[in-house]
Structure formats: structure tokens, C-alpha cells
């Protein structure tokens, strides 16, 4: 829980800040709210495709390398201690004066060794590789979104003559300038989770999101920048978060590799491409849902944005459990400690179910009353009330689905995670297109429930059948 709770809060901080953004923008008007909803869906889709595979493999690789590094450090200390014991046994064979000098020297050398090991920054090759890839991917994302924003929005259902086009284009272009900071921050969060430090990302994220919340009304209403102000405030906060994380990481990790040969591009790319297929499949379902909502008009899209942000913010609490389980499982599998792996998987699944049920109750009580904080438009509120049951009742399913993902990543079962998600996405996309055409807003949410249920079942199937890295459960 010491890892899971801060991790969950860190993951939830940004969606909560997005909810605050949504509340501010909602008071400008439903058109602007719908436009920003489409832009956020596009930005999140591209960002997840670019960084999520990197973050997932980084957490596992860093946890494995850190576990092995700690083992090597302990071996060094044990060797020095054995040498000190051996030197003390020689005291009987030498004079008292020589024995005193030798013992003092041995003790000094041992203490120096321990101090140097404790104070020396760790050399973990996966960290340097992750940061380099995160920075490059962030720059590429910025170029892509700045140059292709208008056609991408058109693909999402925002036509050139739509009232949503101008605010959506403004928000997306400005928000894309923060992509390098976003992707670099997420890569560093993956590193910290691999080191089992979830408090540092939490503090940095909360500080950055607090700045975002403070700057939002200043840029939006005082300077009268509207949706542009929301984007500018968000970009500033993301660079602030990245700066804090980079500074904290530099204190503990040697960020510059001894040589280019120490970078592990091959290992990252091999597993990253598998997860890339998974992320594309997963995010396509949510992005397609947003696109179908946008085609229904600005009012349904505005309601969908509010429901989706709430849905994701609460679900990401379970992602904190998933990342905690992933880090612990990666270390356990690296040491072949299968009893610990089994106990960890069982515990995080139990906690996920309890968390999901608790969130269902809390959202059922609070969301209907709190919806007026986001908008006063009756049409938007009507659609929000339609979406509330789906948001509430799917929380246990979402929690288990996210935690099963973390368990598979911790076991380095990236192949199954990718292939199963592609199959889930194929079925889900068919459901989204079909149900949205026949049942509109309600059909979209029914399809999302099917999508998350299939994700949960895919995770359960792997462990339940004791296949892949879980084959040891048969014995």
C-alpha cells in the first residue's frame, strides 16, 4: 500500500486537473467544452501511443536492474566484511602494534566502501534509454500535431464549418507544445515506479497541477484567452512537473551512460513494439467513442467529455495498484520468487475489487449532485444523467482490468498483453460502431462497458489457465 496509494494519487492528479479544466471551460459554453473534449481525446491518443509502451517496459526493466544492482552492492559489502574478519584472524600471528594498525586500516576501508556504495548514484542503463526515447518521441508528437491538427480534427468528426473547429484547433495546437514535457515526465514516472518510489511523482504532479488550476482562471478569464488560456496553463504546469522529476532523478541516478553501448534500444524496441500494438488497439476504442460522440453534436460531446474524464480519473486509482503490483512482480520474477509473485497478484486483485466497489458507491452518490459544477446547460446535463449509471457501475470492472494489465506487465508477458488487446479491440470497435449508430449516446457507453469487460476477462484468462509466465501455478 505504501507504493500503491501514492502511485494512484499521482495518476489521478492529472485527470482531476483536467476535470477542473473541464469545469472552467464548461462555463464558457457547450461548444467550447465539446471542442476541448475532442482535442483532449486526440492528444491523449497520440501521447498514449507514443509513451505508454515505453513507460510500461521502463517500470519492469528498471525494477529488474535495480534488484540486480542492489544484490551486487550487498555482495560487495559482504566481501569487504569477510575481508575484515579474515584480517582480524591474523592478529594472533602479528605483533599488537601491527594488529592495531591493520585493524584500523581494514575498518577504514570497509567503512569507506559502504559509504561510497550508499552515496554513489546508481547506474541503470534503462533510465538513460527511457529518457532519451521519451524526449525524442515528445518532439515528434509536437511536430505531428502542429502540422496535422486540422485534418486530424476533421477525421474526429469536427467539420471545417463546425462551431467547434476553431476552439478545438486552438487548444490542440497549443497543448501539443507541451508534448515533450508530458512524455518525458511519464517516462520518468515509469523510472520512479520501477525504483518503488511513487511519492516523488505524486509530489511533482500535485505541485504542477496546482499551478495549472491557479493559472487556468487567470489566463482564461482575466487575460480573456478562453480555451487558449486553458492550454497555456496546462503546458506551463507540465514543464514544471518535468523539471522537478528530472532534478530528483539526477540526485539518485547517473543519467549519462558511460557509452552509447550501454543504451538498451534493442531491448526496449523489442518489447515496446508489442505494447505499441496493444496501446493503439486500446486507445482506438476510447478515441473512436469520442469521435462518435462528436458526430452527435456539441451537446452530447460536452456531456461525453465530462463523463469520460470522471470515468478515467476514478479508474486511474486502480492504475496505481497496477503499477505497484507491476514493480513488485518484476522484482519477484527477476529473483524467481514465485510465492511472492502469487501473493502479490492475489493481494492487488483483492484491493482492486474493493476499490472498484467503493468508487461505484461514491460516484453514485456524488456525481449527479456535482454535475452542475461543470455546466448549467440543460441539454448537457440530460446527457450526463444518462451516462452516470455506466460511469458508476463499471468501476469494479475497470479496476480489475487495469490491475490485470499491471500483473501481466510485471511478469513481462508483453506478447499476450498485445495480442489479447488487439482481439478485444476488434470486437469492441465493431460494438462501438454498431451500437452508436442504433442507440446514439447510450450505445456508446454500452460499447465501452463491453470493451472494459473483455479486457478484464482477457487478464483473468491468462492467470486462470496458468499459462505463459504463470505456468508455475500448475505445480
TrEMBL record:
Annotated coiled-coil segments of the chain: none
InterPro entries assigned to the protein according to its UniProt record, in alphabetical order: DinF-like, MATE_fam
Entry's Gene Ontology cellular component terms: membrane
Annotated transmembrane regions: 130-149, 169-188, 200-225, 231-251, 272-296, 308-330, 351-371, 383-404, 416-438, 444-464
Biased composition (Basic and acidic residues): 71-86
Gene Ontology molecular function, alphabetical: antiporter activity; xenobiotic transmembrane transporter activity
Location of region: Disordered: 68-106
One Pfam family per UniProt: MatE
Record membrane topology: Multi-pass membrane protein
UniProt keyword annotations, A-Z: Membrane, Transmembrane, Transmembrane helix
Location (main, coarse): membrane
UniProt KW ATP-binding keyword: no
Subcellular location: Membrane
Family: Belongs to the multi antimicrobial extrusion (MATE) (TC 2.A.66.1) family.
Protein name: Protein DETOXIFICATION
Organism (species): Panicum hallii
